[in-house]
TrEMBL record:
Name this protein carries in UniProt: Large ribosomal subunit protein uL4
Subunit-structure text: Part of the 50S ribosomal subunit.
Compositional bias per record (Basic residues), positions renumbered to this chain: 61-70
An annotated GO cellular component: ribonucleoprotein complex
Job of this protein: Forms part of the polypeptide exit tunnel.
Taxonomy of the source species: Bacteria, Pseudomonadati, Pseudomonadota, Alphaproteobacteria, Rhodospirillales
Keywords: Ribonucleoprotein, Ribosomal protein, RNA-binding, rRNA-binding
Region (Disordered): 47-80
Organism: Skermanella stibiiresistens SB22
GO molecular function, one term: structural constituent of ribosome
Gene: rplD
Pfam family for this entry, one: Ribosomal_L4
NCBIfam families hit by this protein: rplD_bact
UniProt record similarity statement: Belongs to the universal ribosomal protein uL4 family.
GO biological process, one term: translation
Positions of transmembrane segments: none
Amino acid sequence: MKTTVKNLNNEEVGEIELDEAVFGVPLRTDLLARMINYQLAKRRSGNHKTKGISEIAGTTKKPHRQKGTGRARQGSTRSPQFRGGAVIFGPVVRSHAHDLNKKVRKLALKTALSTKLAEGKLVVLETAAVDSHKTKDMALRLKGLGLTSALIIDGANLDLNFVRASRNVPLIDVLPEQGANVYDILRRDTLVLTRNAVEQLEARLK
């Protein structure tokens, strides 16, 4: 399938053939949901923690004798029913990451790319390189392209001026091709790929 290639001035400068094996995959929301859950679980810090009874500072002495006081029997003031006591079955430091088959992850990325193309929200740029690092100039160019919420993916090596100029534009993200992922693609309205990014993604995902 062919699509138009534009430059940063919103001028058509040619066409590019998109591989159907990468950009023509049927929509599968179950795969996208699994991949997003996988990514978000993997980035959780998992550093929540409460103290168990063995970690509470305090005496191990029995508070009072077992019988004859009229009070409930107690074995420790570090028990959960006392103020400052332990938490039973509380959270511990752990990793929330879970496994997801490599083929599933690869197919999910293809599905995300195909979804953007099917929705008409895929733009292909000739290059993502500018002479100036000024945010004002970049904001005007993006406005001319009609981009208000977009993920821009370039080849392996990003243009430093382009990255600096777009860094402070709201809802605009810039990633190299190797950083392309389902979550970032779906969280922005429009996906922008450079010609280099298309070639490298097709080589990686075919």
